[in-house]
Each structure stands twice: as structure tokens, then as C-alpha cells.
Write a structure and sequence with these properties.
Elements: H1 2-36, H2 40-80, H3 88-102, H4 104-116, H5 123-147, H6 152-169, H7 171-184, H8 187-203, H9 209-213, H10 216-237
Length: 244
């Protein structure tokens, strides 16, 4: 019986992925017929890319569903039941750093920034900046869960700091910073680390799961913005200039 449910979940996931990719594929075919008219070899290579992306998304999302989320919840519940709950904070920092390093969307953004700036901003430099920012955010989110802090006291000062730094860093780094905030909240962070936070809040006495388990993504979206704005200010003080 369980095998039937697993097959149904997998089929449902395949259909969802098809629905997500179908509009992009249809638009590409339209432009290929009426605008691009690429050679057959180039067209076939792009079709192979679509198929590989489809297969990769299905496998990744299914792995998240049956592996990442349950594992994160178990880790959160185990640590939450431990009397030394503060250990969740350094663990959150470490996991936030590692998860961001392997986040595909973050790597793509960093590579595009390096290409756009013709190497003035190195891919690894930006990657480690974002990773440290996310790591600090995850640690702060875990502290919120452990100590029952209110999300308002984190987000309001955080965004005030971000807006002040944006005026100092300038328009170019502000654009990069706010894009990085959305990119950093990718599937790795949302599925694994959020599950740990929810699992810990579920097992802790006096913790409302909605109030203290959630909110991590909003903090993670803010921290890379601040980290990259600070990086931009330091970069400009050292003589760097991205304005073209």
C-alpha cells in the first residue's frame, strides 16, 4: 500500500514540474519558429537541456520530499528536546554556511556577477560573503526559536540598517544585494533548515510552532542584503568602481 502512495506522490510531482516548465518551453518553441530560427544542432542541444533540467528538478524535489524535510525535522526535534538547546545556534550557523555554498541559484548569481563585472568581483568572494551572511541569519533565526524572540524585533531594525547601507553603497551594489536576498532563500534553505526550526519549535515547551518555527526565511532573505551592502561599501573604499 505504501508503494502505491509513493508512486502517486512521484507522479504528482512529475506533473507539477511539467506544469512549471511547460510555459517556458512553449514560449521558446514559439520564438524558435518565428524569431530565432536556430540551426538544428543548437536547437537539439537546448531541448536536451530542457530534458535534463526537468529530470533534475523531479529528482531533487522528490529527494527533498522524502529525505531533506524529514531529516531536518528529526534533527530539530532531537536538539529541541536536549537541555542544551543553545547548541542549535552554532549548528544553524554551520548548516547555513554549507547549504548556501551548495545552493545552485546562489552559484549562478555569483557567476553572473563575475561575468558582468569582468572579474572585478570574484565569484568565490561573493559566494563566501553571501554564505557568511546566510549563516549569521540562520544562527539568529535559531536563537529566535530557542529564546522565543519576536520576529518584529529582528526585521524592523534589520531593514532600517539595510536601507541606510543602501544609500551608502550606491545603486549598483543595492541592486545586487536585494537580488541576492531572494536567491539565498532557495530550496536548500527552505526545505532543510526551515524543517529544523519547525521541528525544534514543535518539541519545545511554551513555543508556538507558527510564531517561533516560521520566520526563518524572512531573516535569511535580509541577511545577504546587509552582507553584500557592507561588502560593496568596503569594495568602494578600496577604490573599486562598478559604474559603467
Amino acid at each position: 500500500m505504501s508503494e502505491i502512495f509513493i508512486a502517486q506522490d512521484f507522479l504528482h510531482l512529475v506533473l507539477q514540474t511539467l506544469q512549471a516548465l511547460a510555459p517556458i518551453f512553449i514560449i521558446f518553441i514559439f520564438f524558435q519558429i518565428f524569431v530565432f530560427k536556430m540551426p538544428r544542432s543548437a536547437f537539439l542541444n537546448i531541448l536536451k537541456g530542457f530534458l535534463m533540467a526537468f529530470a533534475g528538478l523531479v529528482i531533487f524535489l522528490y529527494g527533498v520530499q522524502i529525505g531533506f524535510m524529514p531529516a531536518g525535522k528529526i534533527i530539530g526535534e532531537t536538539i529541541g528536546a536536549n537541555p542544551h538547546r543553545w547548541i542549535l545556534i552554532p549548528i544553524g550557523f554551520l548548516l547555513g554556511f554549507v547549504v548556501t555554498i551548495v545552493e545552485p541559484a546562489v552559484r549562478i548569481l555569483c557567476k553572473q556577477v563575475e561575468d558582468f563585472t569582468t572579474g572585478y568581483i570574484r565569484e568565490k568572494t561573493m559566494l563566501y560573503t553571501l554564505s557568511i551572511g546566510v549563516a549569521a541569519a540562520v544562527a539568529l533565526a535559531m536563537a529566535k526559536t530557542v529564546f522565543g524572540l519576536s520576529l518584529v524585533y529582528i526585521l524592523i531594525p534589520g531593514y532600517l540598517i539595510a536601507f541606510i547601507l543602501a544609500f551608502i553603497a550606491g545603486p549598483t551594489f543595492t541592486s545586487l544585494a536585494f537580488d541576492s536576498g531572494g536567491v539565498a532563500t532557495g530550496p536548500m534553505t527552505v526545505t532543510f533548515i526551515l524543517s529544523i526550526s519547525i521541528g525544534a519549535a514543535t518539541i519545545m515547551e511554551g513555543r508556538d510552532t507558527i510564531l517561533h518555527g516560521f520566520g526563518l526565511v524572512s531573516i535569511v532573505a535580509l541577511a545577504p542584503i546587509i552582507a553584500l551592502l557592507i561588502f560593496g561599501i568596503i569594495y568602494q573604499k578600496k577604490g573599486g568602481n562598478l559604474e559603467r
